[in-house]
Design brief:
Layout: H1 21-28, E1 32-36, E2 39-42, H2 44-63, E3 67-68, E4 74-76, H3 77-83, H4 85-88, E5 94-97, E6 103-106, H5 111-121, E7 130-139, E8 154-164, H6 167-187, E9 192-196, E10 206-213, E11 219-224, H7 242-253, E12 257-259, H8 265-270, E13 276-291, H9 295-298, E14 301-303, E15 309-311, E16 313-319, H10 321-331, E17 333-334, E18 337-338, E19 349-353, H11 359-374, E20 379-382, H12 388-398, E21 402-406, H13 408-412, E22 416-420, E23 426-429, H14 431-441
Parallel strand pairs: 3-7, 19-20, 19-21
Antiparallel strand pairs: 1-2, 4-6, 5-6, 7-8, 8-16, 9-10, 10-13, 11-12, 11-13, 13-16, 14-15, 17-18, 21-22, 22-23
Helix pairs in contact: 1-10, 2-6, 2-10, 6-7, 11-14
The structure holds 5'-O-(N-(L-cysteinyl)-sulfamoyl)adenosine (5CA).
Length: about 450
């Protein structure tokens, strides 16, 4: 991709409306644009990151046995009257009427709709377990939308919903999602800690929030340091083995970890004092078991092996991909800009032509661009005639893991420079060697 053709509206000045670093950097790097309070467009650079984040979420949901669907954003109030939540949800729900004056709403979540899908088709325990998810826009009329995409009104959510015959089945489904969340966040370079959490308007009796520790986080959290050294299960984890999965969940729920609302001072004081971390955190995922809260009022039941009808036991499992991107930036940046973890970087490398128009530099850049792309890397080629200083600042700001710097002196000596964005380490090497090196690092 040539930067001269790429829509990358970089801001030189710090935007005044941004209070936290992720919001500031997302605006400055031309990733997002605010359209109204708490509502954002995703520009090309931001959309690339969003797609990478969603791809990881999908892979890990599918690996854990969930199946992707896509439900509408606009829902009928009728369904929500069945569960009783139409009145309960309050002002956060955006209520709409269509031309026939039918009550509609912009979905803040999808428990009712997915329960309706389930009850229309599934009648026997033999079709269980079932877990359906989608990645879809939600709207919540937050009192205080703030911090950019961290707490917005319209935001993307991956929401999964599990259906099981009984509590044991539902607990196994909950555990599978728990483990898939550990893998999902870790693949994005994040250390997410599962914490006992309040269930709020979703309801139920068992719930964990997945929290990234960060000073700018909205929640006060309490956990043991032990979490910071725990190994996340590998891709070979066996989701078909309920015992193995339950073992992982046990290990990850044994040290103390709770959000403010669920904090238990007594249990906390029982933990060794030097291991206690009292911090702030960003909630990037939230999982719930709520049993028959929706299946009972909405009549979602199956025939069990005993020949009798059972209301299915359900859970729901959310991740906020848009918030996640802000959380990744909060966790990984420096003075100069964003430092993307490899797995979610919008580009693998920025190729900087220090003297566009110089035949030697142009030729080396063309070879590098083709070579790197053939090796499977996404490259942003800065072919503009900006000053070198501005080019370096842009490359640092948008935070691709590698920069390849091509200048007339290096080219005369047959070499280009590569720079690691995270460590700042630089190395000079011939074009072919640079291509091989970055291909290996990918
Ligand atoms: N139906 C359940 C689980 S699918 C649910 O709605 N859970 S939730 O309310 O906890 O939201 C799930 C995730 O969406 C949160 O963990 C968070 O990452 C994200 N999220 C929630 N509200 C916002 C918001 N206002 N802005 C950005 N992301 C949000």
């Amino acid at each position: 991709m040539r930067l001269s053709r790429y829509f990358l509206p970089i801001l030189k000045e710090n935007p005044r409306e941004a209070d936290i670093v992720s919001h500031r950097l997302m605006l400055r790097a031309g990733m997002i644009r605010q359209q109204a309070a708490g509502s954002f467009s995703w520009l090309p650079l931001g959309k690339r990151v969003l797609d990478k984040v969603n791809a990881i979420i999908r892979e890990e949901q599918n690996r854990a046995g969930a199946q992707e669907i896509l439900m509408p954003t606009i829902q009928s109030a009728e369904l929500w009257r069945e569960s009783g939540r139409y009145d309960d949800y309050g002002k956060e729900m955006l209520r709409i009427q269509d031309r026939h004056e039918r009550d509609m709403l912009f979905g803040p979540t999808n428990e009712e709709m997915v329960t309706d899908i389930f009850r229309s088709y599934v009648k026997s325990y033999k079709d269980l377990p079932l877990n359906l998810y989608h990645i879809q826009w939600k709207f919540r009329d937050e009192v205080r939308p703030r911090f950019g995409v961290m707490r917005s009104r319209e935001f993307l959510m991956k929401d999964a919903y599990s259906f099981d015959l009984d509590y044991d089945g539902a607990k196994a489904a909950y555990n599978r999602m728990f483990v898939s969340y550990l893998r999902t966040f870790s693949r994005m370079g994040l250390q997410a800690i599962p914490m006992r959490a309040d269930t709020g308007p979703i309801g139920g009796d068992l719930s964990h929030e997945f929290i990234i520790l960060a000073d700018t986080g909205e929640s006060a959290v309490f956990c043991e340091r032990a979490y910071l050294d725990m190994a996340v299960p590998g891709a070979d984890v066996n989701y078909g083995d309920d015992g193995e999965i339950a073992g992982i969940v046990k290990a990850w729920t044994t040290p103390y970890a709770a959000t403010d609302e669920m904090h238990d001072e007594k249990a906390w004081e029982a933990a060794p004092i030097e291991g206690r971390v009292s911090a702030r955190g960003i909630e990037v995922g939230h999982i719930f078991h709520f049993g028959t809260k929706y299946s009972k009022p909405m009549g979602a039941k199956v025939t069990g092996p005993d020949g009798k009808e059972h209301f299915v036991s359900m859970g729901s499992y959310g991740i906020g991909p848009s918030r996640l991107i802000a959380a990744i930036i909060e966790a990984s940046h420096d003075e100069a800009g964003i430092i993307w973890p490899k797995a979610v970087a919008p580009f693998d490398a920025v190729l900087i032509n220090m003297k566009a128009g110089d035949p030697g530099c142009d030729g080396a850049c063309a070879r590098l661009e083709t070579g790197l792309e053939n090796a499977g890397l996404d490259v942003l080629h800065d072919d503009t005639d900006d000053r070198a200083g501005a080019k370096f600042a842009t490359a640092d700001l948008i935070g691709a893991p590698w920069q390849v710097i091509v200048g007339p002196r290096g080219v005369a000596a047959g070499e280009v420079e590569i720079k690691n964005r995270k460590t700042g380490a630089r190395e000079s090497l011939p074009v072919e060697a640079a291509i091989n090196r970055l291909a290996q690092e990918k």
